[in-house]
Design brief:
The protein is of the alpha/beta class and 366 residues long. The protein has eleven helices and twelve strands. The strands form three sheets. Strands 3-4-5-8-9-10-11-12 form an eight-stranded parallel β-barrel, surrounded by seven helices. Strands 1-2 form a two-stranded antiparallel ribbon. The protein has a two-stranded parallel sheet with strand order 6-7.
Length: 366
């Protein structure tokens, strides 16, 4: 058996393999009206194809806990019952294919209210579709971006409750895994980093204060998320700044805090909070950050970032650098990447080919 295709159990949930679908925004929901933020036929087909393609865990794209928490007007959300109903189609089909459905709960913070990437991704403030972003401090993400409104302590508490309410709805929709989005310069990550958090109250300044909002959100979600179901947290392990940003040392320290509060796995990414930084891209360039958390804490980790080859992914696991791999662009290019990888690694029992696809494989997998 390949390490990539060994099951992994988190709490009561057994995930059939270690090839997981990373959250990737589709920017394809209705921007307004009764279907605002609800998944549609595109999302059902998109996620369903990867579930049938053999991925063990299917994580939705960043799903906003409030309308103001969307990255773009076309983002998914889970702040009302219509969205719950629409998500139920996705979770039901994923389970039928043997995959575990997971949801990433998110608030975009100061990076909210931007256009879809294929339309330029520019801020939409002042336009018909836009709204005023919020953040820990009145510090814009980059030149040309709006100055966000600084959240009051009362407003921070309201956002924490929005995360809890979204988790309740995610459970109603049939999700078995929840992940809090604390990466890529969105609201939780903005509070973590001194680059974006210039507060002088109990939510800013020293490490203990900057992590306070994130831990309050974790506690609120864990309080409503069943004990038998796993909770994940996505982190940007570094801002890639020489000084004044969130660091790998802080990530390790924070991971230990998450572990004692009931987080079951740290999904380790990097970057996104500081504009214009140089990131040394390359195969597996973020894996060392996951490996360090795994080596220095007891919290399981997943690795992500230019993981494209089956043997590369296998080595990440067998060398002890991570417990699972998140695939992004590789799964966009090839929805059946896990099935192909299972054959390449001789792990025929590790991924179940749907019977409708069995004729495409030299040996049936199952």
């Amino acid at each position: 058996m390949s390490a990539l295709f060994e099951p992994l159990t988190l709490r009561s949930v057994t995930i059939r393999n270690r090839v997981w679908m990373a959250p990737m925004c589709q920017y394809s929901a209705a921007p307004a009206g009764p279907e605002q933020g609800a998944p549609n036929d595109w999302h059902v087909t998109h996620y369903g194809a990867r579930a049938a393609g053999g991925a063990g865990l299917i994580l939705t794209e960043a799903t906003a806990v409030s309308p103001e928490g969307r990255i773009s007007p076309a983002d998914l959300g889970i702040w009302n019952d219509r969205q719950v109903e629409a998500f139920s189609r996705i979770t039901r089909f994923a389970k039928e294919q043997g995959a575990v459905p997971g949801i990433q709960l998110a608030h975009a913070g100061r990076k909210a209210s931007t256009d879809r990437p294929w339309r330029g991704g520019a801020p939409l403030f002042g336009g018909e579709e836009g709204w005023q972003p919020v953040g820990p401090s009145p510090v814009p993400f980059a030149d040309g971006h709006p100055v966000p409104d600084e959240l009051s302590e009362a407003a921070i508490g309201e956002v924490v409750e929005q995360f809890a309410a979204a988790a309740r709805r995610a459970l109603q929709a049939g999700f078995q895994v929840a992940e809090l989005h604390g990466a890529h310069g969105y609201l939780i990550g903005e509070f973590l980093s001194p680059h974006s958090n210039h507060r002088t109250d109990g939510y800013g300044g020293p490490f203990e204060n900057r992590v306070r909002f994130a831990l309050e959100a974790v506690d609120a979600v864990r309080a409503v998320w069943p004990d038998e179901l796993p909770l994940l947290f996505r982190i940007s392990a570094t801002d890639w700044l020489d000084a004044g940003g969130w660091t790998a040392d802080e990530t390790v320290r924070f991971a230990k805090e998450l572990l004692v509060r009931g987080v079951d796995l740290l999904d380790v990414s990097t970057g996104g909070n500081a504009a214009g930084v140089r990131i040394p891209l390359g195969p597996g360039y973020q894996v060392p950050f996951a490996a360090r958390v795994k080596a220095e804490t007891e919290l399981p980790v997943s690795a992500v970032g230019e993981i494209t080859d089956a043997r590369q992914a296998e080595t990440i696991l067998t060398s002890g650098q991570a417990d699972a791999v998140m695939l992004g662009r590789a799964l966009l290019r090839q929805p059946t990447w896990p099935l192909q990888a299972a054959h390449e690694l001789g792990a025929a029992a590790g991924a179940a080919v749907p019977p409708q696809y069995a004729r495409a494989y030299p040996r049936p997998v199952a």
